[in-house]
Amino acid sequence: MNIQRATPVNELLARLIFLILPTAAISYFLLDNINQYYSILQNRALQQAGYFAAGMAIAAIVYAFRFRFVPTFALVLFGMYITYKGLDKYESGEFDAFFVSTAFLIFSVLFTTGWLIGWIFSRLRYGYIIIPAAILTACIAIIAKSKVDTVEAFLLSFTPALLYAVYIIFTAEQIYNYKDKSKKFWWFLTARLIIFGIIAALLISAVIYNMRKDIKAAVAEYGAGGKFGKNDMLHQRPDSTFDLNDYTRLGSSLSRNKMLLFCAHIDNFFPNTEIPNPLYLTAFYFTKFDTLTETFERDSTIPFNDLFEPDPSRIPLFSTKVDSSVIRNSLGSKLRQTVEIEVYSKMLSPSTYLAPNVGYFVQPITIEKDFREEFKSAFRAKSYVSALNSAYFVYNVQNPQIKAFQEMRFKVLREVPDYNGVDAGFMKYYTYMPSGDKFKIIGDLARRITDTAHTPVDKILAIRNYFLSKDENGERLYKYTDNPGIPDIPNASRLIYFLNENHKGYCAYYAGATLFMLRSLGIPSRIAVGFLTEDRSDKNKGWYWYYANQAHAWVQVYFPGYGWLDFDTTVGNDNESRPTPQPDGTPPMQPPKAWLAAEGLVENVDTLKKTMVMSIRQFVFHDKEYKLAAPVSVSMDMKIATVFKDSIAIPLQKVQKGDEGTAVSYADAMKKIEAVPGDNGLAVVKKFPALVPMDEVYLKRKDVAAPKEKQQVATQPVPFSYRKLALTIAITIGALILLLLLLPEMILRYFIIRYNNARPDGDKPYWAYKAATYYLHMTGIFRGTNTPMQYARNTVDPKLGTSFTGFMNVYLKKKYAKQTLTSQEQQYVNGFLKPFLQMAGKKIKFSTLFFGFLNPIRSAGFFVMPEEDEKEV
Fold it and tell me: Model confidence at 266, in pLDDT bands (50, 70, 90)?
């Protein structure tokens, strides 16, 4: 079928070039953003945009022939379904089949969506209005989810979709309404698009210039997700527990989420009193600032790293993990003490470790049986804590003893006049301040605030007092809000807006601003992330309850000799007195001391005698850990023991040979046994009684006991990069331009392939004619209004010295007379095209050939020539 009899070829080309190509480009823009939030897409936006574009292009070509939509689309869906179902036959592994099936499913969704859009462009008169509406909706959803925290980022996120929407409606109208599909169509469409581009650029520039201030305020107040009160500081895991996000997306510490995560007992009180001295619990630090993306980062190469990050869920019960190097790296020995803490997790991930600064010890412990339904895991921790540290620095409570403690704290720290003698590398790292005007503004503000302060601690207090200051009307200058914008530690631009204009923010704003001001003053500082601690209990002294809204960020400041100390400059919330959603519950009873905790495999179970034999590989005895060179069989008395599997008590009869677990004994018989210094594990085991009395056995699930597969490294969200975006756009535009430039040559090759594969007594003369006339057209030898015979006799042969007229006689005989070609004529057609193109190529300048075949507009003009309406034989 000749495509011109269905949809004019130039109209099809116009749709492909001016409608489908821009739609493919905007689809890449959207898919690139969507890939940042859905790991299943695997960051293959360009490839996925190709799937989408292929679906649109193929559908546009198919429906140019006036095929019906329902049967063709049903055929596409059926083909996709059959292929999807058959994939598992070609993949041997379960995971291979899963990933291949998922990849094909992504391809299917994008291809069929593209097919639908291609059909809409081709067949629905006003259907093109649906497409930009859907694109704009997707764009708004992305802005609501993504990191849009500057006017530039907002415009970069929204303007492409808005321009596309206006462009596609305008262009589609021009293509559908302009009835003359001759060469004039291209000049008409090109001129209209140029005018449209100029007007759109002027209008957008005018809107941005006149409304930039309003846009800036709106972005700061409502940008990207903060308005939803979403606590992105916390990350929900597949098992429904929570941990702290290990990247820069820190959420509002006072988001509306009041879910109880865990409770803790902190054995820290003011000296010689029963007044609890609460301490913040630290998870990790942000120490490095990336000037390119203007974001805070964790740094694996941090100098003097004093962060202890064990995974309690991977440590056997009652085994211990200790890292004394963090104590050395904390660079503080004055007024230090060891503080013990017990953490009982309800919704906090069992792999999360929290402790006051500086944690150095962890030991997973059991939970007393009456509290196992509420709390799922627990651990004991130890920290090397400064006696000057306290959560009360931020509260400013009226208790005289606490106020006296605060003043004592500041008096001691005033003994540090400066940072002379501190390691130069340490100072350079922790006082790094980017250059540039925006950072200079922050530094100037810090110097103005602290101009009368002389010691580091007085400068810190001056910054705190500045955030607590009031304006001329007695209103607080700075206010707390959990809706200032995106749930992140803000970049420099947002901090300047926070400090100089709106004065509203949550903990991340105050922490980020304080850090920059301190570093501009030469005071080493870092941002700590964890949980703020509040003392709300009158009965259970030393117990603290932690809700999701207590996830927090604050600043730690280094003082020579005293180490890192917590300082929180976040102001209180006048609109909320921070009530708890319900009264703090009854704290869990601390379990009795475990004298023995042995880990190993079950060898035998005697349910009648209620005994069990376990092959143990390591054990903890009287808080000392022993590892055996070879497993040793230990007989255990199970008469009073409770066996747990997945936190559920099971009868001894369900314990099977090969089960892996930990057996725990609180028995006095084990308390009386003492290990002599120098005893190894085997010597200690020999001191055990013939039947070791056991109280509890914790069996692991089979899938946990089995060797673990290699874990995938969690990917962090890629920060927004103008350079990457510009490079991607440049590559995309370059690829499209290259494709357009190669299109004429590809069309010629297509004609030649069709000629080579056709029969001499069939369509071979037609394809020879198409290839020859297209070649001549692209080299500037136009047919114009001449008939094909006139073109061959009067233009081509005289100019090139070819025998095109002789071929034309054969071609027109075949086309119009419908006569069968003789064997001699078939042989002539068979050997015509290659010599003709070679002879023509010798007579035409190389530059004419080269530049002619780089002209896609000229190529499009070939398809709008008048039909060969002269029947010459």
Answer: very high
Cα separation, 251 vs 273, whole angstroms? 36
Per residue in 458-491, is it b (16+ CB within 10 Å) or e — as a string? Answer: ebbbbbbebbeeeeeeeeeebbbbbbbbbbbbbb
Distances (CA, A) of 67 to 6, 70, 81, 423, 622: 10, 9, 22, 77, 82
Tell me 561's DSSP state: B
Structure-block tokens of residue 127: 């259907």
In 178-294, which residue ranges form alpha helices assigned H by DSSP? 184-222
Record the tokens describing residue 422, joined without a space. 């501190």
Q: What is the pLDDT of residue 253?
A: 37
Tokens of 52: 């989408």
Q: Which amino acid is at 604?
A: N
CA 431, 437, 438, 443 torsion-angle sign: positive
| pLDDT reading at 459 higher than 90 | yes
The alpha carbon dihedral of 377, 380, 386, 391 has a sign of positive
**What is the chain's mean pLDDT, rounded?**
78
Q: Bigger pLDDT: 566 or 300?
A: 566
Query: What φ, ψ does residue 327 adopt, rounded to 5°?
Result: -70, -45
Query: Which two structure tokens, joined as six digits, stand for 536?
Result: 């709300």
> Side-chain half-sphere of 769: how many Cα atoms within 13 Å?
23
Query: How far is 636 from 623, CA to CA, in rounded Å?
Result: 20
Q: Decide which of 232 and 618 is more confident.
A: 618
What pTM, to 2 d.p., does this model score? Answer: 0.55
Closest CA to 412 of 566, 559, 564, 569: 559
> Which contacts of 98-102 are long-range, i.e. CB under 8 A and separated by 24 or more positions?
102/40
Q: Return the DSSP state at 821.
A: P
Q: Could you give the angle at which helices 151-177 and 130-145 cross, rounded to 10 degrees? A: 170
Q: Which residues are paired to 479 by β-bridges?
A: 504
Nearest to residue 242, comparing CAs of 337, 350, 323?
A: 350
Residues 160, 154: contact at Cβ < 8 Å?
A: no
CA-CA-CA-CA torsion sign (111, 112, 113, 118): positive
Tell me how far apart the alpha carbons of residues 19 and 14 are, in angstroms, rounded to a whole number: 7
Q: Which of 394, 393, 357, 388 is nearest to 578 (CA)?
A: 394
Could you check whether the bond before residue 166 is cis, i.e. omega within 30 degrees of 0?
A: no
Q: Among residues of the chain, what percentage have pLDDT more than 90?
A: 21
- Please give the DSSP secondary-structure letter assigned to residue 498: I
Beta strand 281-286 with 525-531 is antiparallel
Cα–Cα dist 168/22, whole Å: 8
**Quick one: pLDDT at residue 709?**
41
Say if residue 618 is exposed, middle or buried (CB neighbours under 10 Å; 0-12, 13-18, 19+). middle
| pLDDT range class, residue 15, cuts 50, 70, 90 | confident
Q: Is 721 left (phi over 0), alpha (psi -120 to 50) or beta?
A: beta
In one letter, which amino acid is 1? M
Count of CB atoms situated within 10 Å of the CB of 452: 8
Listing DSSP states for 734-755 in one string gives HHHHHHHHHHHHHHHHHHHHHH
Residues 412-426: what's their mean pLDDT? 91
| Spatial distance between the Cα atoms of 219 and 225, rounded to a whole number of angstroms | 11
Nearest alpha-carbon partner for 341 in 563, 544, 566? 544
Choice among 448-457, 731-740, 749-758, 802-811 with the minimum mean pLDDT: 731-740
Residue 567 pairs with which residues in a beta bridge? 555
648: left (phi over 0), alpha (psi -120 to 50) or beta: beta
* 173/126 Cα distance (integer angstroms): 9
Q: Give, rounded to a whole angstrom, the gap between the first and last alpha carbons of the chain.
A: 24
